[in-house]
Specification:
PNGase (chains A, B); peptide-N4-(N-acetyl-beta-glucosaminyl)asparagine amidase activity (chains A, B); homodimer; about 25% helix; alpha+beta; nine-stranded antiparallel beta sheet; GH92 family glycosyl hydrolase (chains A, B); hydrolase (chains A, B); Beta-galactosidase, Chain A, domain 5; globular; EC 3.2.1.- (chains A, B)
Chain lengths: ~775, ~775
């Protein structure tokens, strides 16, 4: 048998499988362009699952601040890309997924031909810089692959990536002198002084190493790189820098051209090539949190060849492996696109943060080695504790315990002795409130997904919850609430601390630590201390124990809340809905109250200055585009009107998640919005992570098969499913009717079948 | 037997030994205040032999540049201290010894009482800042120990140090609220943007860690520290910073007080204590080139206790061990002070640059581990190749081979493939000219002091000597000289390259590599290409082969030389004096020419704008205060008038090296000036390192006993020695008369006795 023929035959077979066996190729349903317009804050570029490298086009470089004042326009550019833009400045290697604040955009690479430019130019005059016009007609985004034609240079740019290496293939449709620009000043949420230092060595005519050190959202961030070219460059050089350049003693060396050791605050480099028509230049750029040596090792281990298509294929296979953990049948093709794109977005972060040898930069800025776990970073915990980490306990149990190990190491390295709040790249950025690492850890402990020292974990949670100088926590411990005249957003803080305390108590209970359980159960009741019986809302209290006088329960500003008004935030007692409902007047009154939330009108003025809340994400006064209310539709389950949850949820799934760049109604927030979609599409949701139970809703899929790590399979089936049959007539688990609107984690993890019988009419007595 | 009594008895015995057995306690002759005034650029503080920490008072903080323009006054502050000053700003942990350009001054610590100041204040108004007045009457400096009374606060400040740890003892004569200031902005040769980043963690109430990253003479320098207090502080905080401070999301944290994680461009911290009268606070501050973890380990290993006096004693014992390698008898007490102070200065650098575990930061900014050698940094090679490293081949053979190993690692890490030129703290600062690492390595090879891979070493030398983009080297290789219209100071460069090439050739010869020997011997003749027969001087040549027209052989500026005029530099052919003398008209004419050098008048205008040359260092037109002519007096040995060298040398020893702060006639240049003193006092000098031979001069000692590492002893004895008997009547080596004015390295290293018979009258026929 001829070997070449065999290879050819296998190749065709394989291709056929990819082309025709669609259900085994969910990558085809992923559309990375979803959520790349307006406020989705998603990037369309190439990345591997949970990859360190997110190689993606940036369409502009709006400064974070001008003359020391915050520039509101920057918010649009959290992911570096805005779909409405008409030019691309280049392809940088690190991006957050869907966040509402930003950083990164490290190592911007741009191929050009003709006249050399070392500044990006402007959108209105692209010819003044290295940027290029592009058209969405010539732009293709897949999981792990991105392609665009750079019109100004007639270059086809293609990107793919492994975990730690971004790979570029630039095909030049015109022969000419070509330049590869490497801009170390460019970045996301940049400002004049953001770059602290940049350092580059041209090791030889195909290899460049260096690092970029910034002072941004991460206060002290360092990312190293090793960059390899498929073709030797004939010249290289750097733009003249204003400051921070050592010019050699007596100015003896011209460092601007072919001098292989460069440093300064804002290095911008070029590499020159003679290029024939249709020739291509490939680039591999590896990142490392440790050193250029680490980056070089990552590069050599992960892509020891120059076969771009092979890398693309392997990364897409990796995506298929992740995405096929759930097989679905849907009513519409677009639902499948939304579902797998949500899965894709849910698996973009937290991101791997260590070299192939396990070394990483710790919070103390020292180098540590991850022993027996993968170290992750970029924990957007105020968002992701809600549904993303619970989803990981089902679909990514090993990664989730590794993420927890990463958090525990963070706590050990923290000079505060605290678990992460919002941490990235060896820094705590302190974004948002609460100490929701506790929720993530407790949820895993309660659900028996543990591969870490649980006693240490409990200790870390308790220590975190007792740092008295943290964000009103001292007063919270003393008074049972955060006084608004001590620390702003005091009600939000009180409510979230109370929930986190409950989560700690649940972990303690599971681990048999009764004293911690008791202590934290007591703390978990603190939500009661900010409830104002008179108005029926949660309301900021002052040090002296009285409620703050001025109070507008619709306003999101200055009312004691953060990124939400009292209408939404007053419902934040996920761990004790029954008590909350009693406190708020009982089931009936509460059900009507929820109805009002979804139907009342919320004038623009109440949120127009809030970055994270936009009209697109709102139904009535219910804000889905931001997190605090994500559990709210499911609260109907604790009234006698569970059916009301069902149409609300189906409505949210339909209205707030659509295909196309503008499909998302708010920041995806590192997968939290997507995790909500996945859970809700399947028919259940973790209202209170740390509880064994999920609240049942109304599934949107026709059928879903969840393949669990333990080999079990959990199937969700629907009968009589349609876009109008949004109500649940009955539910059966393994053939037995479910009489309460909840399902336990064990039921899922043990495998089995959940059947929803759907109807166009509510079954008001289903769970009563 | 009572143990306490035993201890007491031993203590008295030991003290007695220290007090009375003076010859075994050379530390007593060391005066670290010598050379601390004017241009000596020496620091008076505490350090261990070749220590990483130089803990020393800084008397002012003159900026290197103001509004981007060089500030000439900064030159005075190369060592941070100027004897004429009346205030001390604090005690910083890193200092260069005697250099003519500077950097460092890291981690300035200052104790104060009363009102808190976080700026140093000014010399004219010390009360406006944390600095204090002091008096030399209350200042004591010893090898490894420094003490001063800070008058403004009535604090007795004492300093000592191990290799990597500085120890402070502050005794408060008044009880009050005390502050310890830690100023990370302060530094030597500072300028507005020098600090790139500073980072501090308050680990607990007695331990602080962090780092300072600067862009100065070392372009990308990072020094880490761990600082431990003997008494817990009750509060701490930082000065408000203009820029580069992350203020926490929503400005929630007040980072200026008791917030244990600080970063920014210019951290200035304070630590508060309640202090009783006569109470003291001790501080240990360890440095590391690697990490705070490394610094902490250094601290724990080197000083695991709080016994200040024990540290002082151990460090002074270490100094005694180093200094007692030569025992001397002198004509005057002051000669002994000068001699041992010169020994002390010769053993201050290069400095150890690695953690106790052998790890250090390499030139590529990655962390390396020194395997089987001690890694050193701060190679002021243009100075130290001349006499200091040759001295090390006699007195510090192991350290010298480790220094060479450090250079070879540097070469491997260098993206240029070059050995160090002037390197410090993982950076090449490119200061001065030539590639004198080659001289250092060749000298060790020729003298059989090798503990490194000699083939690799030869390869590294050859590679270094062929980097065509380095400082006119390409043209030098092509044309046989550096053209002045290509690269300034072209004659100096040509001459020094030629010498270094000869050194490489000597190493190749010794190693049996004939082709390298031939190639570099040929290059070593290039000095001939810049000799102008018409004027009889070395003179700058242009690309077109003609001499540059305008030419003033007395001027040090714009004449093709650097830090020397043609009169001095034209004598720089140390490797071929015979040929040079022939070229310059023969022995007789040359002898007269040298006479003129020592007697002619050099008007101020010719050097008054040259930092490294001052009136104090000049005899006639001979410049001893700077290096290029250090071998010149010995050139008489190649004429028939060797006796003329003898009185010149004794005269230089007498005039240019005196006790007291103003005792030195120029920068000590990391021990080169001192090494000249030591060699010349002993009666011989290495005119051309790389040669087996030393030129004989006129010893100033009465007797010297050199204790060699191999156990041999080499004794220099004089007969009829006096301050006027400066001429040598005859010399005997092991009883045999010496008939040429040279002695070989082997003669020394094999041990033996060299006897000089001194006279008030020259013996003109001694070597003829």
């Amino acid at each position: 048998m001829n070997l070449n023929k065999t290879f050819c035959f296998l190749f065709i077979l394989n291709t056929a499988r990819v082309l025709f066996a669609q259900d085994e190729n969910p990558v085809e349903y992923v559309d990375p362009l979803i959520g790349t317009a307006k406020m989705g804050h998603l990037y369309p570029g190439a990345t591997a699952p949970f990859g360190s490298v997110q190689l993606s086009p940036d369409t502009d470089t709006i400064p974070y601040a001008v003359n020391g004042r915050y520039n509101r326009d920057v918010y649009k550019y959290c992911a570096g890309y805005q779909y409405e833009d008409e030019t691309i400045t280049g392809f940088s290697h690190t991006h957050f997924s869907g966040t509402g604040h930003s950083d990164l955009g490290d190592f911007l690479v741009m191929p050009t031909i003709g006249e050399l430019h070392l500044n990006p130019g402007t959108e209105t005059n692209p010819d003044s810089g290295y940027r290029s016009r592009f058209s969405h007609d010539e732009e293709y985004a897949e999981a792990g692959y991105y392609k665009v034609k750079l019109k100004d240079y007639e270059i086809d740019a293609e990107l793919t990536a492994t975990t730690r290496v971004g790979m570029h293939r630039y095909t030049f449709n015109k022969g000419n002198e070509a330049h590869i620009i490497l801009d170390l000043q460019a970045g996301i949420y940049n400002y004049e002084e953001k770059n602290v230092w940049t350092f580059v060595r041209v090791e030889n005519d195909t290899l460049v190493t260096g690092y970029r050190q910034t002072n941004g959202w991460a206060r002290t961030k360092k990312v190293y790189f090793a960059m390899s070219f498929s073709k030797p460059f004939k010249n290289f050089g750097q733009a003249k820098q204003k400051t921070g350049v050592y010019r050699g003693f007596w100015g003896r060396f011209d460092q601007t051209k072919n001098f292989p050791e460069m440093a300064g605050k804002n290095l911008k480099l070029y590499f020159d090539f003679d290029i024939q028509e249709q020739e291509n230049i490939k680039i591999k750029l590896a990142v490392s949190p440790v050193s250029t040596e680490g980056a070089l090792k990552n590069l050599q281990v992960e892509i020891p060849h120059w076969d771009f298509d092979k890398v693309k294929k392997q990364t897409q296979q990796a995506w298929n492996a992740e995405l096929s953990k759930i097989e679905i049948e849907t009513l519409k093709h677009s639902d499948k696109v939304n579902f797998y794109t949500a899965m894709y977005h849910a698996f973009l972060g937290p991101t791997v943060y260590m070299d192939v040898d396990g070394r990483y930069r710790g919070l103390d800025q020292n180098i540590h080695k991850a022993e027996n776990f993968i170290n992750y970073t970029s924990f957007s915990l105020w968002d992701t504790y809600r549904a993303l980490h619970p989803l990981f306990n089902i679909l990514q149990p090993d990664r989730n315990t590794d993420m927890i190990s990463s958090m525990l190491e963070h706590q050990k390295q923290s000079v505060h002795g605290m678990l992460p709040i919002w941490s990235h790249y060896a820094n705590e950025n302190w974004c948002m409130i609460g100490y929701h690492s506790a929720s993530v850890i407790a949820d895993a402990i309660v659900k028996d997904n543990v591969n870490f020292d649980t006693d240490e974990a409990l200790k870390a949670m308790v220590e975190t919850a007792k740092v008295s100088y943290f964000d009103g926590l001292g007063e919270y411990m003393e008074k049972g609430y955060v006084p608004e005249d001590v620390s702003g957003a005091s009600v939000s803080k009180t409510l979230e601390y109370a929930y986190d305390d409950w989560a700690i108590a649940q972990a303690a209970k599971k681990l048999g630590n009764n004293s911690v359980y008791k202590e934290f159960m007591e703390r978990s009741g603190n939500y009661k201390n900010v409830f104002d019986k008179k108005t029926g809302f949660m309301r900021p209290k002052l040090k002296n124990g009285s409620f703050k006088k001025e109070f507008d329960e619709l306003d999101t500003h200055g009312q004691g809340f953060i990124e939400g008004n009292s209408w939404n935030y007053s419902l934040y007692v996920p761990h004790a809905p029954e008590e909350m409902i009693k406190m708020m007047g009982g089931k009936k009154q509460f059900s009507t109250h929820l109805d009002s939330l979804f139907t009342m009108n919320l004038p623009d003025k109440y949120f127009e200055n809030t970055e994270d809340i936009s009209r697109e994400g709102i139904i009535g006064n219910y804000v889905h585009g931001n997190e605090p209310s994500h559990h709210v539709p499911y609260l109907y389950n604790w009234t006698d009107d569970a059916y009301k949850a069902q149409d609300k949820i189906r409505n949210i799934l339909k209205l707030k998640y659509q295909t196309g760049p503008e499909g998302l109604s708010g920041n995806d927030d590192f997968g939290q919005m997507s995790a909500w979609y996945i859970f809700s599409s399947l028919g259940f949701y973790p209202v209170a992570p740390g509880s064994e139970n999920y609240a049942l809703g109304s599934p949107a899929v026709k059928k879903a098969t969840v393949k669990l790590k333990n080999g079990n399979v959990f199937t969700i089936e629907t009968k009589n499913q349609s876009s109008t049959n949004v109500y649940v007539k009955k539910v059966e688990l393994n053939g037995e009717p479910i009489t309460q609107p909840f399902i336990s984690h064990k039921s899922i993890i043990n495998g089995g079948k959940l059947v929803f019988y759907m109807s166009g009419k509510p079954n008001k007595n289903l769970y009563n």
